[in-house]
Structures are given as C-alpha cells and as structure tokens.
Amino acid sequence: MSATFLRMALLVSLGLCALGILWRVSTWFRVRIGPDARTIPLHRRLSAAVGGAFAALFSRRTPGILKAFVLDVLLQRRLFADSKVRWLGHLFILAGFLLLLVMHGLAKLVTLKVFPAYQATLDPFLFLRNLFGAVTVLGVMMVMGARRHRPASSPIVRRPGDRIFTALLALVLVSGFLLEAQKVASPRAFYRMTKEYLDTTDPEETLPLRTVWAAEYGVAFPDLQGTPDPDKLAEGRELHNDACASCHTRPTSAFVSYPISRAMAPVVETLDEADAERWLNYLHVFACFLGLILLPFTRFFHALADPVSLLANGAASTGPLSPAARATRRALATDACVGCSLCDDRCSVAPIARHLGNPALLPSHKLLATRDLALHPHSLDRVDAHARRVAEGAWLCTTCGRCTERCPVGLDLADMWDAGKGDLAHAGHPAPAQWVQERTALEWADSLGASPGALDVLRDAASPLSAHRETYSACVQCQTCTNVCPVVAHGGEEPGAIDLTPQKVMNLLRLGMVDLALGSRMVWNCATCYQCQEHCPEGIRVTDVMLELRGMAYRSLGQSRERRQPE
Amino acid sequence: MKYALFLGCKIPAALPAYEMSTRAVLGRLGVTLVDLPFNCCGNPVRSVDREAFVVAAARNLALAGRAGLDVLTPCKCCFGSLRHAQRFLDEDPALRQRVQAFLAREGLSLPTTVVVEHLLPVLARGVGLDAITAAVTAPRTGLRVAAHYGCHALRPSDVTRFDHPLAPTLFEDLVRATGATAVEWPRRLDCCGDPIHDANAPLADRLTQAKVDDARESGAEVLATACPYCHLRFTESQAGGARAPLATMLYPQLLGLAMGLAPRTLGLP
Ligand code: SF4
Ligand code: SF4
Ligand code: SF4
Ligand code: SF4
C-alpha cells in the first residue's frame, strides 16, 4: 500500500467521521421532542445551549460536574454497583481501545513524539499492543457474556449501526493479531528486511542470520526446522546484534500473536504466496477506516454525547432550564444513552412488560421510540399493533422516577416521558381514557357490530366476572348504586358528561348488550370509589365489573379503532 | 413489629415528605421497616389488563413472602390494589396457577400468609392508640382536623377490612390521639377525585372542590390525609385558586409534630 494512498484514505475517513459527528451534533438542535419543543426556532436553541454551557463551565458547580464526569462517565460507579462483570468489561474496552488507538493507531502522531525510540517491534510496545488488544477482546467478551444472561423479555436495545460496528471492531482486532502473527512467521517478510538493510536475499548468504531468526524469532524457514547448527547460530547472532537487535525484541512477548504464528508456521509459505500479509494489512486498515466513518452512527457515539449531557445536567442544576434548553437536552439524551439497560432492571413496570410481552414499556426502549417519533412524526400515523405497543409503553409508565434515579449518565428521563406522551397524543395515540372519547358509546357499539366475532374478546379469561351471568343476574335495578355514585352526582350536563348510570350499565350486562357499555363515559369516568359496590343490597361487584369492562373495551374498541381508520 | 415498606410509585417521585415522616414516626414507635425491590402495585394497569395487574401485585407479595415479612404501605391505592389481587388469586384457582407459573420463572412463589396493611391500621391497632397517646409530648390541642378516609382503603370493606365502611372511626381516633380535634364533616368518606383526573379533569375538580368546601364549612383548619394521591389532588387542585387554600397535612406529619419530632425530619418547612 503506498503511503500517499494510505494518508489519503485516512484523511478521507477522518473527514467523513467529522462530518458524521457534525451531523449527529446538529440533531441535538434540530430534533424536536415534546409539544413544547415544536415552536422553538433553531437559533434560540443554539443560543440557549451556548448560554447553558457557559453557565455550567464557569460556575460554582464546575467541580461537581467534573466529579460527576469522572465518577459517572469514566468510572461508571452505578454500573459498578450493579454488575461487577459488566463494569470491568466496560472499563477494559474503554482502556484497551483508547490505548491501542493512541499508542498504535496514532503511533506517528503521539507515541513517536513522546518516545522517540518507539519501534512497533520493540518491547514494551510489542508486548503492550498485545496486552491492549487482549484486554479489549476480553472486555467485549465480558460485556456480551453478562448480557447473555438477560431474560428474553427484557432485551437490550439495539441501534442499527451497533452490530456492524461491533463486527468491525472484532475484524480490526482479529486481523491485527493475524497480521502480526503472519509477519513473525513469514520468510518473505524476513527477506524484505535483509534486502533493505543488508542488500541481499540470498538464502545461503543469509543462512547464519536465518538460523538465529528461525531459532529465536519464529520465522518458519522450511529448510531450518529442528535443532539449529551452533556455529551458524553464533555467527548469525553477531550479525543480528549489528543489524537487527536495535529494532527487534523476541516476538514471544507478543503473547497473543506469537502462539498464533506457531499455528500458522506450517502453512506460512502458502500464505506468503497468496500475499496474505498484504491482504491482512488491507483488511486491518480498511476496517479501521470504516469503523471511523461509522463511529458517529453507533452506540459508541455516547463517548462524545455523555460529557456534553453531563454539562447540560450541570447547567440544569444552576436553575430551571428554558424550554429551548430543555428541548436540546432531550435530543441530546437520546444520543447520550449508552444502552446499559440499568433503567430497565429497576423499572417499576418491568414485570408488567414481561407479562404483556411488550418491551416498549421498558425505559431504554421507550427512549428510542420517543426519538423515532420525533424524527419521523408520521411513523405512527396508522393505528396498528406497533403503535399500540409503543403507546402502551408510554401510558403504562407510573412516572415513579426510578429510571431517572438509576441512569448512570444522569439522563432526565422523567422529563422525556412527559414530552413523549405529549408527542404520542399529538400523533393520535392518547391514553385509552382519552381515545375512547373519540366516539359515543352507541358509535362504538355500532363499530363492533359491523364485524362479527368482535365480541368474542368479551368471553376471554381476562374478564371472569363479566363472563358469568351470576355476577349481575341478581341485580334488582334498585338504583342504590346510582344514588351513591359521586360521578353521577357531579356528572353535569355539558358535552362529554355521564351518559349511563351504574345501574344502567348493570342492566345492559343483564340484557347481554355489553357492547353498548364498553365505550360509555360512565365506565371510563368511574372514579373506582367502590361506593356502589359497598352499598349494593345484592352484593353485586359493580366497580370490579366497571374495571373489567375497561379492559375489554381497551382490547375490542382498540381493534375496532385499528380497522376503521382511513387507508 | 417488622414490616416490608411498600412505598409504591407516587411517594418517592412526588411526595418524599410522606416517606420521611412515615419512617420518622414509625421508627420512634418501634416499628422496623425493611426495603425490598418491589415493583408497581399493579393498579395503573388494572384498566388495561386484569391479569397483568394481578401478576404485578403478586410479585410484590412473593417478594415479601420470600423475606418472611408482612407488607405495610402508606399508599391507599397500593393497599387496595394488593388486597384486591389477593382476593382475585383466592377466588380463581386457574388464575392462581398461571400467576404462580409466571413467578416461578424468576424463582419466586405465591405466599399464603403475607398480610398487607395500610399505615393507619398499623398505627391504630398494631402500635395501638394508647401507645400513641403516650408518645405524644406536644399535643396539637385545639387544632381542628378533617380526616379524609380515602376510597381504596375503606371500600370494598370485605376486601380491605379497614374499618366499618359506613361509620368508620379509625382516622378520627388517630387524629384525637395527637390531641387535635376531629371535625365532623358530611363528605369525609367521599372520593377525592384523583382517579378520574386524567380522563376528565373538570369532573375530578368538582369532586375535589366539593370535599374541600365541605371540610372548610365544617370548621376544619387542616385536611389530614394518608395517601399520596388524595394528598396531591387536594394540594394541586387548590393551587392558584382565588381563596387561600385549606391546609393539607399527611397524618404522620401531624403525629410527628405531636410527638415533638423536628419539622425538618417530617418533610415540613
Ligand atoms: S418512571 Fe416509568 S419508565 Fe421509569 S422506572 Fe418508573 S415506570 Fe419505569
Ligand atoms: S437511559 Fe440511562 S440507564 Fe437507561 S439504558 Fe440509557 S444510559 Fe442506561
Ligand atoms: S345497587 Fe346493586 S342491585 Fe341495585 S341497581 Fe345497583 S347493582 Fe343493581
Ligand atoms: S365506583 Fe364508579 S360507579 Fe361506583 S360509585 Fe364510584 S364512581 Fe360511581
């Protein structure tokens, strides 16, 4: 590979990486999450961000922000508290990757400046390169292993680029080790060096040196297997000390590549003939470049977004944020999330998510769904199963705040969920108690009647009370329930007021006309105060039935809503 | 006495003063509280999926059962929810089996003996009114307090077994134990309006307003609550109104003051 071409490729990928970063950063100011973010122009968000960053960087809070950066982002103290394996794995990846990048990837720019005697083939660099690579591999394995133990119902969120990036990282590491191993064992690499430094490639002439390199440096010469000739060895060592030793340590300190080179030794000639070194080099370098280009579009972008997000938190701690700053912080949060799922593990509704088989309830999934809706405001225009699951995720959240408390990056998730609910309602997916108001009880009943079989849902195991006539057959229509009902008493006359009374709801059930009750205001505005149930002279569980009817309505009217929308 | 403390979702997020005052008062009265990794009580999902509701509640019962503890909750909605789940599980063996299978995946199992209690009965009957009276060192003499019962603790009485559903005295007894005067007010057993606030805010506000007006007209200076939802509904709906709001106070705050605890430890200014 010519040096100019390499430099060009590096520059191009660096440029693309920078453009990608710029693009991603620009989303922090462009993406609008939450109804309050919709009307704020770009320039207001930019100026609010600059002001906020300034306030955070030059205030009494700065030491606190720095401390949070070290403890939360670099040292991941909350991950430490949760899972030692994942914590160590993360630290290994972070340290191994960074050190490889600086010492090896940027050798010319950094290492040579600090250690002018740097040679890739000299210790400690040779050893360290293997160490850092091995540490990175180990880290990846630890994190992946720890994740494998997650239940299928609580999956880790994945972004599209993540798998590709992980694959590229693996490719870089594996090709790096293979390349190093090939170079160790390759006679061709040996002759290239003798040509350059001794101006010969003659096997006989270089025999003494070859003996040394076969015996101690792992080069697999086919004619020099077995015990080396002591005379040749002594002669070669002299030459070696003069010409090679200053740049080469014994490759045994490459504790990963060296064993690989032993495995490759028997076939190294074939590999040489196939130009393996060159291809491995291409693979290694281009995987690096491709990784660089993709980096801003993967989960690993959090390395940049996290510190900025902490800065935003710092600004928030100095006083209430302006709506413009809040909007920016929300967009930033979707990038700062590291996908650790610690929030999911603590989520109050995680068992409900598991039971419903709907991971959209889990905060880390909800975060991406919130961003997706903001990026593609028409993506949920259709009322379908997907939209229902996303909406369920938002509306079943109890706003308990545990996710916010847990998040290692300190994301203000509570604010995010509020904003997300606003966006969902705007997109036509308000809470069930709201969307049932789209039609009257009669219209809902009609919509069910239009599709035979719709009422089957009423007979499912989820509604055991209503499914049995005995539940309400004893009702004597005495109206006691209605008389004690505060919702009837305060129901009022205005539109949307109470349409049925509890006693009438019970009567509809008795008459087998449950479909007329499902969408009624009475059922959905019932305060669940249990006055009716407590006072009913026949012991009818009026409130329990009301709540069951809501569950039925949620399913059956929800299906009817999906069917009846304009194409 | 030892209980697993079930705070639910609302208290930690929106009313930390309730947790503080509950811990402070119970600690002083010799009740030990244990924290377990509980989840949502299930109430919010009851309108959507009955079985998911039971599963969520049952998991909490299972956690308490594994720890060998009864449950104490300061939230009346959590209390009602957990009690209802117990009833549903008791009357429906098939449901019980499905829930058991769900819990078993986590290595948990449904307990048979866990008792779910609300803070107020634990104080009135567990600790006892005599012990409370004895602990009161700074009686709130002359303070006129309206005690708000809260639907989900009081009714349905066959599930909650809180007190007599039509003529309860438990909360007033506890108010009097602090040295304060419990006012008679006609709407004391009515709904605070909170459960329908999301579905129909104006209707909910009318319910809340009726209660607050009634308490005020009956001469109350303070509205005492023992549930985060009721409490926040009363404070939020009065905020920004033309009249000066009727003061609201969480019962453990009232009791804590009467026991001479520092207002700071009760989440009071
Ligand atoms: S606030 Fe919502 S998403 Fe967060 S932990 Fe609580 S229930 Fe889960
Ligand atoms: S929101 Fe926070 S806790 Fe949840 S996955 Fe993202 S970084 Fe982790
Ligand atoms: S109080 Fe009971 S018996 Fe009377 S109308 Fe209502 S449900 Fe029927
Ligand atoms: S539980 Fe519902 S229907 Fe029954 S009295 Fe209360 S508000 Fe009315």
Short description:
With 567 residues, chain A is mostly helical. In chain A, 66% of the residues lie in helices and 0% in strands.
Instruction: Give the cofactors and ligands.
Output: iron/sulfur cluster
Strand fraction of chain B: 5-15%
- The SSE string of chain B, one letter per element, is EHHEHEHHEHEHHHEHEHEH
Rounded to the nearest angstrom, the distance between the terminal CA atoms of chain A is: 57 Å
Total helix count of chain A?
33
The unreliable regions of chain A are none
Q: Give me the Rg of chain B, rounded.
A: 18 Å
Largest sheet of chain A: none
Name of the CATH architecture of the domain at 305-430 in chain A: Orthogonal Bundle
What is the CATH level 1 assignment of the largest domain in chain B? Alpha Beta
Percentage beta strand of chain A: under 5%
Give the CA-CA distance, first to last residue of chain B: 30 Å
